[in-house]
């Protein structure tokens, strides 16, 4: 049925022109990115699955334990010391209880963080689906473990708060026999793609209507093996989310930073200059892992100033910021992660004007009195200068803005009173700062109206 429907879709795309996208990168890459994504700027990433049960090393635990050659000795020792002989990775699934999972409370945290979209793991490389996939019998969250539809339950709560809902999906599965057979055949066969991946991914879209698909696990095979362009043509032309859905760039070996909707390029990607294409930085509060770790240490976590600094630099460079947390197997977002997210929301409640729907300015950063990062509003009538270090004096100097002496107004976000300033020549201005309020984020924003 998938092949029949796909053929019909491709045929229609080839016979028509204009608004329909053809299954090739030239056509697909020309699709405009839906407006909501660039305006959102801030998202929350959630890595959750069976890997949360061992909670050791990272979400790649199964591979590190039994896929690597030689295996990671720390993972081998962890299993030998804590589990009986013969214990297999699938034996973790019944222990994935999620008994404390409260989707409304999760959604409250995400809303309080200031995020505008949430991306949940629907299937990681282990192949376990967090929804009742009929293509993943007895290896999904309804047949085993939580016995509930995690994707659906969280989606309802997220959308009740008017947040956008996205789903992460791994194309490949480490130990799926169909995938391993295709891999053995140098990807000249597509048993896994046609019998598992595409039917499952299509059903995921039809069932949950995600506004973002965060594809991953593409690097071992070309996009022609994954039938990526055919799937995206259907997604953009005929799916129920065709007008709003956003995709990333992980659709086949060599596609990243080249094809797709927005670019991830690589995990924690940080460009050195303003990219010409819309991009996103994914970053994890836990700097050592995306999934939950039982042995996490405070020193391995990003503190709030680091998160705010990372966010500001990303948005100044035109990117979106997707901040990850890893819940426990019993469905709790660790309190330290919750604290980081709520504190980020506190900073955004004051400074969000410089973040949401902003555009890169003609200059992204300068070494002023202290380092400054710039954004601007969509009309260009206001420029925001975010400084990430508290100045040692009350005078603050910027050299890049060109002032209009009779029109320029300078304010500190969170303080309604205009600040006194004087022009510098040939450009720039010197500003008299008030006593800066304490902020755990250690970042403040100057709003400059009517500067060039």
TrEMBL record:
UniProt-listed GO biological process terms: lipid metabolic process
Residue ranges annotated for the Alpha-L-fucosidase C-terminal domain, each copy included: 364-448
Stretches assigned to the Glycoside hydrolase family 29 N-terminal domain: 14-353
Top EC category: hydrolase
Catalytic activity line of the entry: a neolactoside IV(2)-alpha-Fuc-nLc4Cer(d18:0) + H2O = a neolactoside nLc4Cer(d18:0) + L-fucose; a neolactoside IV(2)-alpha-Fuc-nLc4Cer(d18:1(4E)) + H2O = a neolactoside nLc4Cer(d18:1(4E)) + L-fucose; an alpha-L-fucoside + H2O = L-fucose + an alcohol
PANTHER family: ALPHA-L-FUCOSIDASE, TISSUE ALPHA-L-FUCOSIDASE
Complex formation: Homotetramer.
Identification of the protein by name: Alpha-L-fucosidase
């Amino acid at each position: 049925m998938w092949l029949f429907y796909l053929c019909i879709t491709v045929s229609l795309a080839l016979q028509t022109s204009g608004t329909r996208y053809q299954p090739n990168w030239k056509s697909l890459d020309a699709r405009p990115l839906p407006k909501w994504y660039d305006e959102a700027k801030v998202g929350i990433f959630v890595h959750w699955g069976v890997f949360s049960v061992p909670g050791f090393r990272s979400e790649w635990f199964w591979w590190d334990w039994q896929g690597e050659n030689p295996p990671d000795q720390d993972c081998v020792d962890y299993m030998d010391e804590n589990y009986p002989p013969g214990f297999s990775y699938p034996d973790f699934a019944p222990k994935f209880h999620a008994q404390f999972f409260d989707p409304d409370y999760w959604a409250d945290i995400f809303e309080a963080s200031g995020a505008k979209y949430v991306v949940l793991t629907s299937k990681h490389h282990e192949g376990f689906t967090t929804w009742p996939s009929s293509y993943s019998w007895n290896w999904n969250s309804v047949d085993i473990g939580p016995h509930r539809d995690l994707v659906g339950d969280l989606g309802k709560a997220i959308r009740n708060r008017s947040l956008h809902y996205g789903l992460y999906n791994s194309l490949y599965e480490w130990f799926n026999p169909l995938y391993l057979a295709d891999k053995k055949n140098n990807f000249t066969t597509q048993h896994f793609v046609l019998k598992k991946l595409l039917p499952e991914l299509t059903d995921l879209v039809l069932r949950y209507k995600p506004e973002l698909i965060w594809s991953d696990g593409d690097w071992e095979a070309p996009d022609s093996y994954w039938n990526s362009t055919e799937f995206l043509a259907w997604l953009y032309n005929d799916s129920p989310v065709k007008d709003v859905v956003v995709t990333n760039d992980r659709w086949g070996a060599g596609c990243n930073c080249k094809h797709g909707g927005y670019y991830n390029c690589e995990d924690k990607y940080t460009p050195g200059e303003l990219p010409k294409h819309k991009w996103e930085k994914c970053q994890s509060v836990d700097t050592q892992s995306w999934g939950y770790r039982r042995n996490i240490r405070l020193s391995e976590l990003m503190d709030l100033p680091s998160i705010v600094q990372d966010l500001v630099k990303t948005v100044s460079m035109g990117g979106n910021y997707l901040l990850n947390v890893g819940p426990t197997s019993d469905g709790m977002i660790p309190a330290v992660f919750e604290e980081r997210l709520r504190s980020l929301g506190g900073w955004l409640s004051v400074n969000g004007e410089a973040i949401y729907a902003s555009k890169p300015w003609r200059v992204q950063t300068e070494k002023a009195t202290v380092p400054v990062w710039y954004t601007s509003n969509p009309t260009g009538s206001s420029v925001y200068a975010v400084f990430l270090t508290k100045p040692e004096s009350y005078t603050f100097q910027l050299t890049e803005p060109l002032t209009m002496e009779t029109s320029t107004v300078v304010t500190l976000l969170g303080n309604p009173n205009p600040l006194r300033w004087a022009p510098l020549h040939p450009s720039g201005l010197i500003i008299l700062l008030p006593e800066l309020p304490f902020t755990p984020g250690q970042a403040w924003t100057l709003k400059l109206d009517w500067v060039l």
